[in-house]
Amino acid sequence: MLRMCYRLVVGVLLLVSAGVAEQRVSSDYRDYIVRLTPWRTLNGRTSGALVQVRINNGKTLRLLLDTGASGITLDERTARKQPLRDIAEAQVSGVGAADRARLMLASRVQIGELEVADCPVRVMARLATPEADGVIGMDVFQEFRIRLDAGARELRLEAFGERPVRTVDSDHLLFVRARINGKDEGMFLVDTGSAVTTLASDVQWPAMPFHGEMTLGGAGGEVAGTRLAPVSLQVGDWKVLEREPVAVDLTRVSRINGVKVAGILGYSVLSRGPVVFNYRDRLVELGSR
Question: How many CB atoms lie within 10 A of CB 129?
């Protein structure tokens, strides 16, 4: 029986305790380019993108870029070396079980030439991010139109003509409606922090051959999955073949977000072409040029 280990989702992060200062861009509001490096998991495959970040003038950290997360998330060992202000208790929820965390505050975060003030930092006992120091949510850049180009290894931050008002933490997730094999469709979470693309095992998809069982690492521990035969995905006019989809129980993710989640578009497909994220208008443009 085939068993493999991937990181699926570091977390669909939910803030339980309020009272955090509002995060804001403190450097000039203009266009920026953030350089990315590949995140390679223990099996050697590229499973995501890393961003170099400095917190409160500390050492440079390598954080995984994750649209399924909010703010910055670190493990306890890394966080102890950072000058952070403790705020409250928080909770991290995802595909696995919920886990407790501490909510802290970074007064200054540097990402290349970009500086962000009052950025929330969640601290967990452990994170399933080998070869990375933690996770950075795409919503850290939400005051910009964000263009992810994995092939060019860059994140382009394009300033709007009028600076947008920052949204609240609960709005950090982005969903698109995707069609499977030209027929069935449903709401898919867009998650650059997920190494693989998944289909919800509780959805009545047409019979699909399976290629063995898998073990995936999530925010709350390991999650069982089933490797499926290749499927075609279509979002609007954008089409892609996912060669190694995985069926996973996503009922918890659906319950947390109040929407039936049919699957997760992971880095395995989001890295195929440029993707634009627009938190101001709640839009995702796949294959955008």
Answer: 24
What is the per-residue pLDDT across 181-228, written as a single tens digit (0 to 9) for each? 888 889 999 999 888 899 998 877 766 666 666 656 555 556 777 888
Q: How confident is the model at residue 273 (pLDDT cuts 50, 70, 90)?
A: confident
Q: Which residue has the higher pLDDT, 107 or 171?
A: 107
Q: How far apart are CA 280 and CA 106, in angstroms?
A: 23
What is the tens place of the pLDDT at every residue in 5-21? 334 443 333 333 334 45
- Name beta bridge partners: 109: 55, 116
| Contact call for residues 85 and 209 (beta carbons, < 8 A) | no
The string of DSSP codes covering 231-261 is: EEEEETTEEEEESS-EEE--HHHHHHHTS-E
Count of Cβ atoms closer than 10 Å to residue 250 Cβ: 24
Query: E strand or H helix at 270, and its extent?
Result: helix 267-270
Which has the closest alpha carbon to 56: 26, 87, 91?
26
Q: State percent of the chain over pLDDT 90.
A: 39
Q: Rounded to whole angstroms, how far apart are CA atoms 133 and 131? A: 7
Contacts of 33 (CB under 8 A, 6+ apart): 112, 154, 155, 156, 157
* Other residues' Cβ atoms within 10 Å of the Cβ of residue 253: 25
